[in-house]
Amino acid sequence: MQHNNQDAVLLELLKEGSAEAFTQVYGKYHGILMTLSTDMLKDQDMAEDLVQEFFIDFWQKKLFLKIDANYQNRDRASIMKSYLYASVRNRCLNKITRDKKFTSVIPEEAFLPNDPLESKEIFFMVNSALKKKVPPKSSTAFRLRHYDQKSHKEIAAEMNTSIQTVKNQIGTAVKILRGHFSPAHL
Q1: Tens of pLDDT along 37-63?
Q2: Over the range 119-137, which residues count as b (16 or more CB within 10 Å of their CB) and which as e?
Q3: What is the maximal distance between C-alpha atoms in the chain?
């Protein structure tokens, strides 16, 4: 219990601007946060960068001031660890979502059915999901990319938007379709 009480004291010292308290928090939690981020990102250097950036933000942007607001219903003595863990986990998830390195590269042939009727059925199911589940702009961007084989640049010009917006819209469509066709939904 004293271990957790120390966190409550460190949190109060951080709020008073104590650099020594920050150094203690860093020393105490750097290792566990590195383990978490390395496990999630599968890349030691990327994990180190992410944890370092988090600690820089934690101090410079005074993220510790958000701890009480985010964890009001928790035992005050354990909120620091919960906040640090959740923050780094969320940053890892954001990194994984944004970084193309984490998208699996599987040959398109792996998804092509041998039976033409099966191919038509899959096309119909995807089309139906695009119409019913995916926002119109995301659906259009997805169709132009995957059905018409257009580049992000060509789609951006055709839709009169930025390349990044096109990527985001396609990502939204893919995320919704993955969720729709996940085993839990089938």
Answers
A1: 998 888 899 999 999 999 999 999 888
A2: eeeeeeebeebbeeebeeb
A3: 69
